[in-house]
Amino acid sequence: MGEEHFVETEKMKNVQEKIEESSKTHFVLVHGISGGGWCWYKIKSLMEISGYKVTCLDLKGAGIHPADPTTILTFDDYNEPLIDFLSSLPENEQVILVGHSAGGLSVTDATHRFPKKVRLAVYIAATMLRNGFVTEQDVIDGAPDLSEFGEPIDVYDMWFGLGPEQPPTSAVITKSLQRKIAYQMSPLEDSTLAAMLLRPGPIQALKSALFKEGEGAEEVPRIYIRTAYDRVVKPEKQDAMIKKWPPQNVYTLESDHSPFFSAPFLLFGLLIKTATSLGCSE
């Protein structure tokens, strides 16, 4: 009798834990090109300690995902892990999608596809284009311009998956420039970690990002978090995208391109502020 009672108690405890877990506000954090779920380690820790549920995805060929980024040629292929993840969620579950840098393209794609599953879309120093790279102006506004640091051959290490005569299929900022470009205000240990973990990003796939506007997508609230000292997606580019497709709110962080390293507590505070303003709690 005692053993049976123990088993039933444990079952009830497990059910209660599952109910509590499912009721938590769920943040899904999406990295930028060359990054991975590892980028968010500080934010994930702060959120989970505070009682929130957090998922840090690796897009295809990023982080510890086994695919070779040089072979990823379409945006749909690259963004497949996020789309598969949202597809697997219960119909009534909503998440707060957070995208950094090129991760903004992934967030927009997901919002068009699953508007009922996205409670809030947050863009951090991110490419925020309603339909992706449709026009030349979209490319000017949304793609990084690192020409001030040299010619592409000097700024990037590049791979040519379609052959040496074709445009590069993947690239990563060369190690000697990574801190200067993306992490100039971040702790040295974080830029050192990034130098060890960054992978080539599928630039050919990102250039092909085009989205068919989904019904209900415009009803998903959007927040933009600007980064005032960004050398990748420069403030003027961020402002141009904000003006063209205005979000509900805009906040500014005094940070480099990587506020999850350089201003984690301020970024965490803003993310929680945006969630609670929509009535989301732990």
Automatic annotation (TrEMBL):
<feature type="domain" description="AB hydrolase-1">
    <location>
        <begin position="27"/>
        <end position="264"/>
    </location>
</feature>
<dbReference type="GO" id="GO:0080032">
    <property type="term" value="F:methyl jasmonate esterase activity"/>
</dbReference>
<dbReference type="Pfam" id="PF12697">
    <property type="entry name" value="Abhydrolase_6"/>
</dbReference>
<protein>
    <recommendedName>
        <fullName>AB hydrolase-1 domain-containing protein</fullName>
    </recommendedName>
</protein>
<keyword id="KW-0378">Hydrolase</keyword>
<dbReference type="GO" id="GO:0080031">
    <property type="term" value="F:methyl salicylate esterase activity"/>
</dbReference>
<dbReference type="GO" id="GO:0009694">
    <property type="term" value="P:jasmonic acid metabolic process"/>
</dbReference>
<dbReference type="InterPro" id="IPR000073">
    <property type="entry name" value="AB_hydrolase_1"/>
</dbReference>
<dbReference type="InterPro" id="IPR029058">
    <property type="entry name" value="AB_hydrolase_fold"/>
</dbReference>
<dbReference type="GO" id="GO:0009696">
    <property type="term" value="P:salicylic acid metabolic process"/>
</dbReference>
<dbReference type="GO" id="GO:0080030">
    <property type="term" value="F:methyl indole-3-acetate esterase activity"/>
</dbReference>
<dbReference type="InterPro" id="IPR045889">
    <property type="entry name" value="MES/HNL"/>
</dbReference>
